[in-house]
UniProtKB/TrEMBL annotation:
Keyword set includes Signal: yes
UniProt-listed SMART domains: VWA
Organism: Anguilla anguilla
UniProt-listed PANTHER family: VON WILLEBRAND FACTOR A DOMAIN-CONTAINING PROTEIN 3A (PTHR46478:SF1)
Signal peptide segment: 1-19
Chain ranges of the VWFA domain: 39-236
Keyword Cell wall biogenesis/degradation assigned: no
Protein name per Swiss-Prot or TrEMBL: VWFA domain-containing protein
Alphabetical keyword list: Signal
PROSITE patterns: VWFA (PS50234)
TM region positions: none
Length: 259
């Protein structure tokens, strides 16, 4: 009976948990995830390759300011990196309404051009304090050596609580994604691989009444958050099948035999 209760409980939770999971991947969380730290620095790749993506990224970043930074009273700053690093403010700032308006205006004046000086951007973020959550969005590899950046980040974060979360934005370069994954995991951060197609897959997973055939498996995702979600959904699908099998057995036993 314990197995039956577990399976039935999981089956009932299947629809109840969907709303919460949908919230976790709505709005700015769809791209940046949930901001976990009190003090945060957003690093935005504004290299030339981001030209077509930048308008949408600006909208997502504006959403982040009002969805998470302002209501949760973070201390924050923003920096854009291309051939050089441009900073909104050189130090962390309380997320007052005035500061958020100014930050949003700063975001909308950004232009895509030049290279990708990732190392200098990380250096700026690591210099903001001893405990900072860094959220870096990029669409490709840096100009400098990936191994050099990983070594420098490890050195700069020693003795500090610097966590770098990385977002791969519509990037199909496996080497670039692997670099961003290593950078995040090295600092105990999260790696998120944002792809438009993945959003459709998540919608299919969370859609009420979706069938097992319509739901993707965790192998379809690269990012940490989505892989975690997919694994949980795989478990729930397994329990749902068990629950259906137990229910069928119980109904068969309760049905009187006609003779």
């Amino acid at each position: 009976m314990a197995a039956l209760w577990l399976a039935l409980s999981a089956h009932m939770r299947m629809s109840g948990c969907r709303g919460q999971e949908e919230d976790s991947f709505a709005g700015s969380r769809r791209v940046f995830g949930v901001l976990l730290e009190r003090d945060v620095c957003i690093l935005l790749d504004c290299s030339g390759s981001m030209a077509t993506s930048l308008p949408e990224v600006k909208r997502e970043l504006s959403s982040l300011i009002w969805d998470q930074l302002r209501p949760n009273r973070h201390r924050f700053t923003l920096a854009a990196f291309s051939g050089e690093v441009q900073t909104w403010r050189p130090t962390l700032t309380e997320a007052s309404e005035e500061a958020c308006r100014e930050a949003e205006q700063w975001v909308w004046q950004l232009c895509a051009h030049g290279g990708t000086c990732t190392l200098q951007a990380v250096q700026f973020a690591c210099g903001l304090g001893d405990s900072v959550g860094v959220y870096m969005l990029s669409d490709g590899k840096p100009d400098s050596s990936c191994s050099l950046i990983l070594q420098a980040t490890e050195r700069m974060s020693q003795g500090k609580h610097i966590i770098v979360h990385t977002i791969s934005y519509n990037c199909n370069d496996s080497a670039a994604n692997e670099f961003l994954r290593k950078l995040a995991h090295q600092t105990k951060g999260r790696f998120h691989c944002f792809q438009g197609d993945a959003d459709l897959l998540v919608a299919a997973m969370l859609k009420e009444g979706s069938t097992e055939e319509a739901e993707p498996t965790c192998s379809a995702f690269e990012g940490d958050d989505l892989r975690g979600l997919a694994k949980e959904m795989d478990k729930l699908r397994h329990f749902r099948k068990q629950a259906a099998a137990f229910r069928k057995i119980l109904l068969e036993k309760q049905t009187p035999v006609k003779g």
